[in-house]
Amino acid sequence: MKTLFLSLYLLAAGCLTPVFAARLERVNQLSAGGPLPASLSDTNLTMFGRGMYPGDDTTYEHLRNSGFNTVILSSFYIHANGDVYSGDDHRNPVIHDGQYVGNKAWLKYVASLKQQPSSVTRIEILLEGRWYNQPPNTYDYIQDWYDSTRTVDGIVTGIGPNSTLYKIIRVMKEDIGVDAICIDDESVYNSESIAKLGELAGHLNLHMTLCPFRKTEYWKDIICRSQPGLIDAIYLQCYDGGRFNVPGTWKNKLQTMLPVYPIFLCRGAFSTCNPVHNSKTPADIKAEMIRFRKDYPEMNGGAIWQMADVKNYIRNNCAVQYPESGTSTTLSQYILDLRNSLKDGLSE
Prior knowledge:
Layout (H helix, E strand, L loop, with lengths): L1 H12 L5 H11 L14 E5 L8 H8 L5 E9 L5 E3 L8 E2 L2 E2 L3 H9 L9 E7 L10 H7 L18 H13 L3 E5 L6 H13 L3 E4 L5 H10 L5 E7 L9 H8 L5 E6 L16 H13 L6 E5 L1 H9 L2 H4 L9 H17 L1
Parallel strand pairs: 1-2, 1-11, 2-6, 6-7, 7-8, 8-9, 9-10, 10-11
Antiparallel strand pairs: 2-3, 4-5
Helix pairs in contact: 5-7, 7-8, 10-13
């Protein structure tokens, strides 16, 4: 009986998220802000999309034909005045004064991702924060703005419909057309502010996903503070600072039923064919997927960081200049090889 009461308590707190609870909560909580967001595919293969703003028809056509199910538009940064910028364009905002002011063609490209025939069924947008020695942005401002009792010049604080944060996320939902916001906080680590942002996202019928590489207790606290069904995936960085991360270990530490997908840095990262920051070849990625599944057999997906690096691999002619990096000589072939490295690693 004590176990039953404990389970009910944890479930109410958002610390247990079994599939049936997530589905029920999705119906109950995500129903007031328009269409329900797209769910994750049973086998979820994800491509992060830095290097795609504004992009071109060819890039998006490659993704439609790629076999990847989820595309995460990345990376986007909130500035002190409430403007939002793409990491691909530091001069012109994408969102200004609660309105979309970015490249209009980009909206058409993003919308085309789901146009059939296409393997893409879900689109997310990555909110990236500052790295070491960078000026404050995104998560500093979310922390400063989520509390409506605070006063910030030029900002409407809180998470209500008139707030600056609400208007930013509404543009992402209604204009850009995303299904989820992906949280990549690597510096601030204020779980209350992220849970409040998730509450806001839920009101707009969006999911939230997490993109950690360290501080398991921080991410666990976000999960525990959030309504079941709101957060539906964890993308775990398994490169650079997270090079020793193991999805099964994280899943156990987080004590969650949520799927944990490893993210791999592909060759071509940082414009080089070499294995910098723990970047991996398709063969390496497949081997890691197989290794990860040994202690996490229900693992059902993985992700590649990022489209800009995929392009760099081909641009630098890596298959010829550095044969150990792989054999792909065209963009479509490299995307397919990376997709297969994830998929085949789940089937062996």
